[in-house]
Specification:
By secondary structure, the chain is α/β, with parallel strands linked by helices. It is 27% helix and 24% strand. The protein has two domains: 197 residues, Quinone Oxidoreductase, Chain A, domain 1 (Alpha-Beta Complex), CATH 3.90.180; 137 residues, 3-Layer(aba) Sandwich (Rossmann fold). It contains ten helices and 15 strands. GO terms for molecular function: alcohol dehydrogenase (NAD+) activity; zinc ion binding.
């Protein structure tokens, strides 16, 4: 099969013919219809993820059609499926509590297992996968695997956002845009933060109540002023020290910080603990979404409760993934890119 392979960090992915994936006994092989290009992939591409090395195939936001099913698989050849990026075992104590996104035995394609920057991808533990709705395009579906699902779980589970609350969103990439759209659907008021005016304007067009350019002002102070004392919930969607502290510092007393952005490297940061202590803040970490929440999320999208189509800005070829990753060295343009052509 054709795949985009990491050969040297920070250099173009190598488009190669590699072995087709072996079908897992408890899973399936999918012919990939679409795969998102995510900032988490960028961390691996620059050498800042411990499970990405020479020969790795990135790609964890994907959907496709089953071309081979193992003897213990739930699904069959021909099924069109969406895959969450965390493939949980389903049998450990953590999975039994319903928190499958925290499974210690999970498999994450693209990080320690071959990913979906390829014509085919293997998916073990296929009980995590769900059917692709007939009316949903593969490009939109691919984005659900990380951005929308992560944002939905952050808002509804970790933060428990309620109508009328102020939600601050630090970073308007894929996670940030999904958070904006979903928070507005929940009835929250949203203020977004970025350093690219084009992205802030894009967020305003998608319903943001306010926007702050962190290059021009103290973002935390501006949010406290806009919200009349601080946000109730703040979502950090980049994974860097500056935005983490801005997220903590922008909150009102008893506010909730949710850390979504994947920290690069060793993950060490200096955090304003005095703000957390003095304002008695809650500090949550989150990663992905339990697979059992997929049907309700998909149903909501199918009913038109929220329109996530504005998130996908570009459909690209497999060979175009390198340019998208390279662009993440600096400020990026609005919207996200999805690979939908795996022929070149």
């Amino acid at each position: 099969m054709r795949a985009a392979v990491v050969r040297n960090f920070n250099e173009d992915l190598s488009i190669e013919m590699v072995e087709d994936p072996t079908c897992p006994a408890n899973g399936v092989v999918l012919e990939v219809a679409a795969c998102g290009v995510c900032r988490s992939d960028y961390h691996g591409w620059v050498g800042k993820h411990p499970k990405v090395e020479n020969g790795s195939i990135l790609g964890h936001e994907y959907c496709g059609t089953v071309v081979e099913a193992g003897p213990q698989a739930k699904y069959k050849v021909g099924d069109r499926l969406i895959a969450p990026f965390i493939l949980a075992c389903g049998s450990c104590p953590t999975c039994h509590t319903g928190a499958s996104n925290a499974c210690e035995h999970s498999v994450v394609p693209g990080f320690g297992a071959p990913g979906a920057y390829a014509e085919y991808v293997g998916a073990p533990f296929d009980h995590n996968l769900v059917y692709l709705p007939e009316g949903m395009s593969p490009a939109i579906a691919a984005g659900l695997g990380c951005r929308v699902t992560t944002a939905w779980h952050a808002l509804t589970d970790r933060a428990n956002v309620r109508a009328g609350e102020w939600v601050a969103v630090h970073g308007t990439g894929g996670i940030g845009l999904a958070t904006l759209l979903l928070a507005k659907m929940l009835g929250a008021r949203v203020v977004v933060v970025d350093i690219v005016e084009e992205k802030l304007n894009h967020a305003r067009q998608l319903g943001a109540d306010a926007a702050v350019n962190a290059m021009e002002t103290d973002a935390a102070a501006a949010i406290r002023d806009i919200t009349g004392g601080g946000a109730h919930v703040s979502i950090e969607a980049l994974g860097i020290e500056a935005t983490t502290n801005a997220s903590v510092e922008c909150l009102a007393t008893l506010g909730r910080h949710v850390h979504v952005g994947m920290p690069a490297g060793d993950g060490q940061m200096q955090i304003n603990m005095r703000a957390i202590y003095a304002k008695q803040l809650a500090f949550f970490g989150t990663r992905g979404m339990p697979s059992w929440k997929y049907p309700s999320l998909l149903g909501m999208i199918e009913r038109g409760a929220v329109d996530i189509r504005p998130m996908v800005a570009r459909e690209i070829q497999l060979s175009g993934a390198s340019a998208e990753l390279r662009a993440m060295h600096g400020p990026t343009s609005p919207g996200t890119a999805v690979i939908t052509d795996f022929t070149q």
